[in-house]
């Protein structure tokens, strides 16, 4: 059994939320540079150049990549041999978020009541936390701040098995088409298929963390990812919705078994930044 003081969690989360908002992952930067080099629309090329410049400024000056610093979302794998001491697990995550968003001058975007009063919580808590118990004595934390523009373009559809893969692909492409420039393209598209209603959405969100160019391990789904990317970029929405060849940088599909009478499909979009950072404690 390994004892871990929750102060380690607090410090790790504090740094993760700031770093995720300041530093874009290297694989996404490379993908954006490639898109810039290959883009043939003049306005789209100019926008991609500005996006890349914005990332440089953010990295150098430790300023948020975007004014919307997002809801603080965490995927946490907890080794079953870890015992937290010194306080509660969720309290520690929220304290790290509180400190990081205040000290990092990150915009606080949460309201305490979603419908009636909508008063800002002033520290971007509570965080959204997805814990999972795994073998071992390590703790892996992925921080993924999620902005409202991209998240608002998400959708879950309870499809019929008879809709088949073409029905799934039509749904994904149409979701991106209807989103237009709202999610700040070029986007990364996460698709979750199977499980049940909420699990399909969770699969779609987790799919967004895959490394650029990393195809699904199933060859058939890998081909579907490539075909979806081709169809989405043929829409001509382009960077920031102003036209061009680059509407999406990647499409990632995750799937799992589902009920014989169901075929849930979820689409979760991320903007060109796709902010996420991880640490293993």
Question: What's this, in brief?
Answer:
The protein is of the alpha/beta class and 281 residues long.
List the helices and strands and how they pair.
Layout: E1 2-5, H1 6-22, H2 26-38, H3 42-61, E2 73-79, E3 82-85, H4 89-103, E4 128-134, E5 139-143, H5 148-151, E6 155-159, H6 164-179, E7 187-195, H7 197-207, H8 219-233, E8 248-258, E9 263-270, E10 277-280
Parallel strand pairs: 1-3, 2-4, 7-8
Antiparallel strand pairs: 2-5, 5-10, 6-9, 7-9
Structure explained in plain terms:
The chain is an alpha/beta fold. The protein has 2 domains: 2-19 and 65-145, no CATH class; 148-274. 40% of the residues lie in helices and 23% in strands. It contains 8 helices and 10 strands. It has helices at 6-22, 26-38, 42-61, 89-103, 148-151, 164-179, 197-207, 219-233, and strands at residues 2-5, 73-79, 82-85, 128-134, 139-143, 155-159, 187-195, 248-258, 263-270, 277-280. The strands form 3 sheets. It has a 4-stranded mixed β-sheet. Strands 6-9-7-8 form a 4-stranded mixed β-sheet. Helix 2 packs antiparallel against helix 3 (42-61) and helix 6 runs parallel beside helix 8. The longest helix has 20 residues, at 42-61.
Residues in helices, as a percent range: 25-40%
- Main sheet: which strands, in order across? 4-2-5-10
Instruction: Tell me the distance between the termini.
Output: 14 Å
Would you report the number of β strands?
Answer: 10
Biggest pleated sheet: 4 strands, mixed
Structural class, from helix and strand content?
Answer: alpha/beta
